[in-house]
Design goal:
The strands form six sheets. Strands 6, 7, 8, 12 and 15 form a five-stranded mixed β-sheet that branches. The chain contains five helices and 19 strands. The chain has about 325 residues and is α+β, with helices and mostly antiparallel strands. The longest helix is centred in the middle third of the chain and has 30 residues.
Length: about 325
C-alpha cells in the first residue's frame, strides 16, 4: 500500500525569492537596505519597469489626470482663452484640455487668444512627449522576456547511488524549449571567523549536471554530499543554527522569444527535508504512444523507506 505523500507547502510557507517591498527576499529572511538614497533620477526608467501592472496603470492614470487638470486650470484662469466655451464653466476647460492633449481637435472649441494658443501649444508638446514615453514603457514591459520555470516548494536530502544527495526539482511550465540551459546552486550561511567576526559566506555547490542543450519538461538538480561538500556532516539543526539558505538559478535562451531568460529560487533551512525523496511524476505506463507527466505531484515528497515513487530522482533526473 502506497504511503500518503507529504505536501510541505501546506505545512510551511512557500519559499519566496527576489525583491519584496522595501527589501530583498533570501529564504525566509528579508534584507532591507538602509543608509542609501531611495530615489535617483537616473533610475526612473528602471523604476517604471519594475512596477506591478496595477501600479503602473494607476501612475499613468494619475499623470493623465494631473496634466489635464493643470492645463484646464491654466485656461480657466484667463477668461476668453477658449472660443465658444461657456463663461465660468470649468468642465468646458477640462474637456478642451483633454482634446488638446490628444490632438483630437473636434473644432467646436479652439484657442481664443494669444495666451490660449501658448497654453494649447505647450500642452500639445507635453502631450506628444508623454504619449511617446508611455508607449515606449508599454512596449518595453510587454516585450521583456520572462520565463515560467517552476521550482519545487522544498529540497530533499536522500541517499542516491549510496551517497547522500541534495535534490530539488525545476520544471518548464511552457510548452516550448529553453536552449543551452544552465543551473547554478550556492549555499549561503553565517560563519564566525577566528577573530570572532560573523561573516556571511557563499559556497558554490558542485552539481551532477549543470548544463543542458535543451530544457523542456523537468529537471531534478542533484548535489552529492561528499567530503568536499559544505553540507557534509550537517544536520537540519546545524543549517538552522547557521542561518543557511540554498540559492538556485537557471538561465537559458527561450526558443520562442529567441532571448535570454532566467529564474531563481531560495530555500531556507526549513525548506530542506532530510531523509525524504520526491514522488515519481513520470508514469511508466504508456497510453498509446504517450507517457504521462503528472505535475500535480511535482511538490510531493515521501519519507525514505516508504513507497510512493521510484528511486529518488527517477522522474527525469536530467533535463528535457
Amino acid at each position: 500500500m502506497s504511503a500518503t505523500p507529504r505536501r510541505p507547502a501546506q505545512q510551511i510557507p512557500r519559499p519566496r525569492v527576489g525583491q519584496v517591498r522595501g527589501g530583498f527576499q533570501l529564504g525566509t529572511s528579508q534584507i532591507k537596505r538602509v543608509g542609501v538614497s531611495f530615489w535617483h533620477w537616473g533610475d526612473i526608467y528602471h523604476w517604471m519597469l519594475t512596477l506591478t501592472w496595477p501600479r503602473f496603470f494607476a501612475l499613468i492614470g494619475m499623470l493623465y489626470f494631473v496634466t489635464n487638470l493643470g492645463f484646464a486650470l491654466a485656461f480657466f484662469a484667463v477668461p476668453g482663452s477658449i472660443s465658444n466655451a461657456r463663461p465660468g464653466y470649468f468642465p468646458d476647460c477640462v474637456f478642451f484640455s483633454i482634446e488638446t492633449l490628444a490632438t483630437v481637435g473636434y473644432g467646436y472649441m479652439n484657442p481664443g487668444s494669444t495666451y490660449g494658443h501658448i497654453v494649447a501649444s505647450t500642452e500639445i508638446l507635453l502631450g506628444m512627449v508623454e504619449v511617446a514615453a508611455v508607449t515606449g514603457l508599454l512596449f518595453a514591459r510587454f516585450s521583456r522576456p520572462t520565463s515560467r520555470i517552476m521550482f519545487s516548494d522544498v529540497a530533499v536530502i536522500t541517499p542516491f547511488n549510496g551517497v547522500p544527495t541534495l535534490m530539488l526539482r525545476a520544471g518548464n511550465e511552457r510548452a516550448n524549449l529553453i536552449l543551452e540551459a544552465s543551473v547554478r546552486a550556492a549555499l549561503v550561511r553565517r560563519e564566525t571567523t577566528q577573530e570572532g567576526q560573523i561573516f556571511t559566506r557563499f559556497y558554490d555547490l558542485k552539481l551532477e549536471r549543470d548544463q543542458s542543450g535543451v530544457f523542456a519538461l523537468t529537471w531534478t538538480i542533484l548535489h552529492r554530499i561528499d567530503e568536499s561538500s559544505p553540507l557534509y556532516g550537517k544536520t537540519q539543526q546545524d543549517l538552522h543554527d547557521e542561518g543557511a539558505t540554498l540559492a538556485v538559478a537557471i538561465s537559458g535562451t527561450d526558443d520562442t522569444l529567441n532571448d535570454f531568460v532566467h529564474a531563481r529560487q531560495t530555500y531556507a533551512a526549513e525548506h530542506i527535508f532530510f531523509n525524504h525523496h520526491f514522488a515519481d511524476i513520470l508514469s511508466d505506463k504508456m497510453e498509446g504512444n504517450v507517457r504521462i507527466l503528472d505535475y500535480s505531484k511535482f511538490h510531493d515528497i515521501y519519507p525514505d523507506g516508504t513507497e510512493g515513487g521510484s528511486m529518488p530522482g527517477a522522474a527525469l533526473a536530467h533535463p528535457g
